[in-house]
Amino acid sequence: MCDSHPAQGDTALRDAALDSTAWPFQEARRILDERLKGETPAKGYVLFETGYGPSGLPHIGTFGEVVRTTMVRRAFHLLAPGIPTRLFAFSDDMDGLRKVPDNIPNKEMVAQHLGKPLTRIPDPFGTHESFGHHNNARLRAFLDSFGFDYDFRSATECYSSGTFDDALLAVLRHYDAVKNVVLPTLGEERRATYAPFLPVCPRTGRVLQAPVLETNPEAGTLVYQDEDGSKVETLVTGGRCKLQWKADWGTRWHALGVDYEMSGKDLIDSVRLSSRICKILGSEPPVSLTYELFLDDKGQKISKSKGNGLAVEEWLTYANAESLALFMYQKPKAAKKLYFDVIPRNVDDYLSHLETFERQDAKARLNNPVWHVHDGQPPREEAHLSFGILLNLASVCHSDDPAALWHYISRYAPGATPETAPILDRLVGHAIAYYRDFVLPSKRYRPATAGEARALENLRAALAEAVPDTNAEGLQTIVYEVGKQHTETFGDLKGWFKALYQILLGQDQGPRMGSFIALYGRAETLALLDQAIAGEDLGDTAAPRAAEG
User: Fold this and answer.
1) Does the pLDDT value for residue 532 go beyond 50?
2) Using an 8 Å Cβ cutoff, are 483 and 452 in contact?
3) I want to staple 281 with a disulfide (CB 3.0 to 4.6 A). Which of 248, 254, 340, 479 is the partner?
């Protein structure tokens, strides 16, 4: 998922991009037409930004925001190849730590430093110069593992180095106007003491929510009331003060010249207020996209504190990173459930889009999600098998050994090997892990009734009589025809297939049976049917191996 520029000479592709309905191209056109008016910004590049709160570790929302922003950036490259772009991954590491996270060691030590900027708190892990530096390193390693092209920016560095000094002085000059944007959004008690600036106490190092008593724009200072009641005058520059959240966001846009930033639905009001502050300081706020939040399997908003979400590491245990990028690509403005059950469908959707891509013309390819997942250059590899079929193969093989699955795969698709089909090989490992953790615990085989056993006997006879080279479609037809002969037992074909899944696979849903039989093997399927007809417990039986040769 690394970033690169397309060939500048591909005018036909750029023309197609101008009409593409894919949302990254729609966003890129907004940047080019509405904000830039087709011109390169005075700073020499278009700036995309994503934000990160380093009081916690990077999570699936972090991935979603960066991968979606990268997709818009790639689309922009195709539309305007002559305009350079940059992506800043910005860490708000100067925020004062409000509470001790649950998932860290040395909590007592960290508790002694509450209120300080994260970059001034000792690292509880003992590996970096501060807690902020530790989490920033984790962020960079996280983004690097996906090959993202970005520049890291630290709030501590921007405040302390003077990068934000001019913008901070502008806030001081427009102090009342900035303050009045935020005041109506606060409760009565908070309004009484609110100030856009948060002084950093030189004695304790804590970020103070202190009343500001005076401002002196000419000197670049303010006077605040310290915790002991004394009056303290301080410069607002050089890292001696930071800004409250909404003022900070709008000021950052102004200081850095941010052209595009997306954010979640929960920040709609913050975007509106920060945009007003950015305009007060003399800049146009960036083009923005508001994306919907993720929901758990019960339809509740996913929350890090509740622990009802799905971690990136968990997704990558059970599926490839490209399927996660596809999940993020699809309908960003629609709320989506994010839990383990969505993984197989997204893997198969990815494989389907990948297969379709090779047959599409240039215009259709730009609307294919894999163009955006792979920066226009998806791998050329035949999928051979769906992830759903692999899960069912793992289920009937009763094995956590990839070689056991490849035994069947190689016979079904003779040209496929772990070396020639690397995507498939990775999915074999993912399928075994998913089966082990999610399918196996809920498998419940049931014995066939007398009527069902007769139908299984008929299916066995029909499969045994079929010509040796009958393909998956032909095998599916055989299964259909046998089911039609037993409507008095099953009611309809749906009931027939459900019975097959429950009896042979121990689950209520399953694969297209013709494809499964072709993959698993005719001889193995006949042996499986024999066991079911005899009333054996298939859950306790290892899958029969195909005869060699």
Assistant:
1) yes
2) no
3) 254
Residue with tokens 């949302």: 23
CA distance 396 to 505: 6
Q: Which distant-in-sequence residues (6+ apart) come within 8 Å of 414 by Cβ?
A: none
Q: How far is CA 270 from the centre of its chain?
A: 23
Q: Whole-angstrom Cα distance, residue 49 to residue 272?
A: 17
Beta bridge partners of 263: 290
Distance CA 226, CA 282 (A): 32
Contact between 412 and 518 under an 8 Å Cβ cutoff? The reply is yes
| Cβ count within 10 A of residue 404 | 19
**SS3 call for 547:** coil
Lookup: tokens for 98: 């409000």
Rounded to an integer, what distance in angstroms lies between the CA atom of residue 73 and that of residue 59? Answer: 21
User: DSSP assignment, residue 183?
Assistant: G
| C-alpha to C-alpha distance for 158 and 76, rounded to whole angstroms | 27
pLDDT tens figures, 280-305:
999 999 999 999 998 887 777 776 55
Assigned token pair, 141: 């390693």
- H helices then E strands: how many in the chain? 25, 12
Report whether 91 contacts 139 (CB < 8 A).
yes
507 secondary structure, DSSP code: S
CB–CB of 463/524 below 8 Å?
no
Give yes or no for a contact between 289 and 332, defined as CB atoms under 8 angstroms apart.
yes
If phi > 0 it is left, if psi is from -120 to 50 it is alpha, else beta; for residue 506 that is left
Tell me what percent of the residues of the chain surpass a pLDDT of 70.
95
What pLDDT does 537 receive?
82
| Side-chain half-sphere CA neighbours of 61 within 13 A | 20
Query: What are the φ/ψ torsions at residue 467 (nearest 5 degrees)?
Result: -65, 150
Using left for φ > 0, alpha for ψ between -120 and 50, and beta otherwise, residue 89 falls in beta
Residue range 148-190, pLDDT digits in tens:
999 999 999 999 999 999 999 999 999 999 999 999 999 998 8
Two tokens, residue 33 = 């037409």
Q: Which two tokens stand for residue 520?
A: 């698993």
d(CA 467, CA 408): 20
